[in-house]
């Protein structure tokens, strides 16, 4: 099965941006000072998401199809993604690509740059 990695990365970043926007409107961005419960549900767009806080991040699972978006150490910068979170996202969609191969595929995407262990699109 051929997978368009660029589209998947853009979808992940878009979902992260939407979820963080809704989260910040509801609970704020300070993950230490947040008044959010450890688990719960939020609406983002027309979709209901279950969330579970962990460390300095939040794991979101879309109830309609089980898609998993885990935003962690750069919660306030949802335009960034890392290989581990991308791998989890893909796996929740039924696509198994492990990190060594995934890194090569991501680095082949035009307009993607790496900062430490995170990646971002330099253009829309």
Structure description:
The protein is of the alpha+beta class and 124 residues long. The chain has one domain. It is built from three helices and seven strands, in the order H-E-E-E-E-E-H-H-E-E. It has helices at 5-27, 83-92, 99-107, and strands at residues 39-44, 47-54, 57-62, 68-71, 81-82, 112-115, 118-121. A four-stranded antiparallel β-sheet has the order 1-2-3-4. It has a three-stranded antiparallel β-sheet with strand order 5-7-6. A hairpin with a 2-residue loop joins strand 1 (39-44) and strand 2 (47-54). The longest helix is centred in the N-terminal third of the chain and has 23 residues, at 5-27.
Number of strands: 7
- Calculate the terminal CA-CA distance, rounded to whole Å: 26 Å
Rg over CA atoms, rounded to whole Å, is 14 Å
**Helical stretch tally:** 3
Q: Which residues sit in consecutive blocks of at least 5 with pLDDT less than 50?
A: none
* Gross geometry: globular
Number of domains: 1
The mean pLDDT is 93
Could you give the order of strands across the largest sheet? 1-2-3-4
């Amino acid at each position: 099965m051929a997978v368009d990695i660029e589209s998947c990365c853009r979808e992940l970043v878009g979902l992260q941006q939407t979820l963080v926007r809704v989260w910040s409107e509801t609970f704020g961005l300070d993950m230490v000072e947040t008044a959010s419960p450890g688990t719960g549900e939020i609406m983002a767009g027309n979709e209901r998401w279950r969330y579970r806080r962990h460390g300095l991040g939040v794991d979101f699972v879309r109830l309609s199809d089980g898609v998993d978006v885990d935003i962690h150490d750069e919660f306030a910068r949802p335009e960034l993604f890392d290989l581990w979170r991308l791998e989890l996202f893909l796996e929740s969609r039924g696509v198994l690509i492990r990190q060594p191969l995934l890194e090569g595929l991501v680095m082949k995407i035009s307009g993607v740059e790496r900062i430490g262990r995170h990646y971002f699109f330099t253009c829309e």
